[in-house]
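Please, structure for the following, as tokens.
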Amino acid sequence: MPALTDTATPALQLSPIVAGVWRMAEWDFDVGQRLQWIHQALELGIDSFDHADIYGDYRVESLFGEALAAEPGLREKIRIVSKCGIKLTSAQRPAHRIKSYDSSAEHVVASVENSLRALRTDRLDLLLIHRPDLLMDADALARCFEELKAAGKIVHVGVSNHSPSQLALLNARHRLATHQIELSPLHLAPLDDGTLDQCQALSMRPMIWSPLGGGRLFGEDDAHALQVREALAAVGERHGGASVASIAYAWLLRHPSRPWPITGSGRVQGLRDAVEALRIRLSAEEWYEIWQAGAQREVA
């Protein structure tokens, strides 16, 4: 097996809360409003922003880039994360005949170049392979990462939504900085399937998408979500009346893998709820109280 590469890159640094922008195209913000939202995030201590090339039908990176272009110098105050590897059928990508995954060097390099142009930047602080490509050539992808790093176009690399074995395969060829996964009191699988165990074993802090269940946590017609929400509210009452959202974030932050939760809201209050969780430390019993509502059972 080829030797592990990239052991000298400094550890990935992100703000404790990461701002997700996947819905920015739906927010109907003009350039000034996008710029204001970025500044409001910075004022709250959030300097890391999570993208993917496909977000908003391949439009969100350009929307964000327009805001950066409107204020020269802002780029040096923030960290940009992006993902590639999913090919959607879209008028923006007419060559894509079907939806598929592609981790080939050709596609990854082209995706990075497209993201850099759209974001009006010369580098990505973190590049993630968005979904596990069943045809991934780990050696070829590792060489691609090395070349992109040597060119100064990316600083760190990682994966998203991979199984432990898929991550291990690529990590054996090139040191990965993080694993972006779905986790919430309504989606508990990573706690049991080895994903978070692996993160701890590798000293790899995970990034967490959909920490509020993609909004499902606040649905009115979902009995499971209601049960979880009631548990979160009860814990929140013991912590000075903290919001359901803040307690959901605090539940994630309690895990010893030291995750970076990703918000998904254009509302400043949504960012505040996430940041407020940094001041809340749940007891182990409170954590399990919420887990029990999510799992709909007691521990065995």
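The CA atoms of residues 31 and 70 lie 8 Å apart. The chain has eleven helices and ten strands.
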